[in-house]
Specification:
The chain is 37% helix and 14% strand. With 73 residues, the protein is an alpha+beta fold.
């Protein structure tokens, strides 16, 4: 059976938490540009990662990046 290719942008945007749970984490939107005029508190909040709640998104990410589980270990 040949290996499945990983969707590279998906593997860069999502991470799995370590440990038994293995929750899918994503970065917040809007952190790439136009940050100079925002307050330091607002800029600092962009550094946090959020848990992906939607089951459909989790299934899509698993299909696009099948080896993401190995990356989290």
């Amino acid at each position: 059976m040949p290996k499945i290719k990983t969707h590279k942008s998906t593997s860069k945007r999502f991470r799995l938490t370590r440990g038994g749970k293995g929750k899918l984490m994503r970065t917040k939107l809007g952190k790439s540009h136009l940050r100079r005029k925002k307050s330091m508190r607002a800029r600092r909040l962009y550094d946090e990662m959020l848990v992906v709640e939607s089951k459909g998104v989790r299934q899509r990410v698993r299909r696009l990046a099948p080896y993401l589980q190995e990356k989290g270990k």
